[in-house]
Structures are given as C-alpha cells and as structure tokens.
Amino acid sequence: MNKIDIIQKKYKDDPWKVLVCCILLNQTTNQQVRPIITSFFQKWPDSFSVSERDFKEIRDLIRPTGFQNVKSKRIIGLSEKWSSGERNLKHLPGVGKYAMEAWRIFIDGDMDFTPSDKKLRIYVDENI
Predict the structure, then answer these.
(1) Is there a contact between 108 and 91 (Cβ–Cβ < 8 Å)?
(2) What CATH number should be reported for the domain whose range is 14-127?
(3) Which residues are designated catalytic?
(4) Alpha-carbon span 95 to 83, nearest angstrom
(5) CA separation for the pair 104, 111 (Å, rounded)
(6) C-alpha closest to that of 112 among 94, 123, 91, 128
(7) Which residue of 5, 9, 11, 46 pairs with 17 in a disulfide if CB–CB is 3.0 to 4.6 A?
(8) For residue range 112-122, what is the model confidence (pLDDT) as tens digits?
(9) What local confidence, expressed as pLDDT, does residue 2 receive?
(10) Within a 10 A sphere around the Cβ of 103, how many other Cβ atoms?
(11) How far is CA 65 from CA 27, 28, 40, 104, in A?
(12) Burial 108-122 (b: 16+ CB within 10 A, else e)
C-alpha cells in the first residue's frame, strides 16, 4: 500500500507553517495546494514576514486553492496573532477542527485518536 503524502508532514518542525497549510487546504485538495506552497513559504518564510499590506499578493498567489480572499485574511490574522505570541489554537484565526487535528498529529505527535478528516485518518491508520 502506498503511504499517503500529507503536506503538513513536510512542515512538522514549524507549527506556524502547519497551520498555514491547513488554511490553504480548507475546501480544496492537495493537488491545488502543492504547486503554490513552496512559493508561498519562499515569499513568507515565517509569521513575521506576513503583513496586512501583503493581502493582494497573498490572494493572487493562493488563487488556485479557491476562497482566496477568506484564506488570505485568515493567514494574515493567524500570522499577526502568532507573531504576538498567541499559541492557543482556539484563539487563532482560521484554525478549526481540521487544523487542530493536524496539530495533534504533526506537532504533538499524537496519533491515538480517529481524525474526522478522511486523509488525516488514512495517514494515522498507516502510521500507527
């Protein structure tokens, strides 16, 4: 069986990047995010590099993922809060159930649960 390739796994050493990946993956597929993710993190390598003035540039880069206006606002909001030291996932913009489950898997290293997302569930099943 081929192991499922989850984008967040590549960024597991950088929690902010895992959360950005989750925002980008909302309402879309890996196939739409993969072509833009490297360019995104080259342009904005950390939360401090993201600014409200980047909205149009972020929006244009992530357009292939859909919902680019909403996602751009969430990434900017997440980055501002993250840069200010906020680490409570419930207080971070754009962080919902999917991101919390991805965090649990890739940041906390906890796979002792059944994720609600199909791909995360497959990943956990293949790696326990």
Answers:
(1) no
(2) 1.10.340.30
(3) 117
(4) 15
(5) 7
(6) 128
(7) 11
(8) 999 999 999 99
(9) 59
(10) 20
(11) 8, 6, 12, 24
(12) eeebeeebebebbee
Domain boundaries, the chain: 14-127
Q: How many residues does the chain have?
A: 128
CA-based R_g, the chain, Å: 14
The first and second tokens of residue 20, run together, are 């950005």
Q: Which amino acid is at 35?
A: P
Low-confidence stretches of the chain (pLDDT beneath 50): 1
Cα distance between residue 98 and residue 86, in whole Å: 19
Residue 23 near residue 72 (C-beta atoms within 8 A): no
Q: What is residue 107's DSSP assignment?
A: T
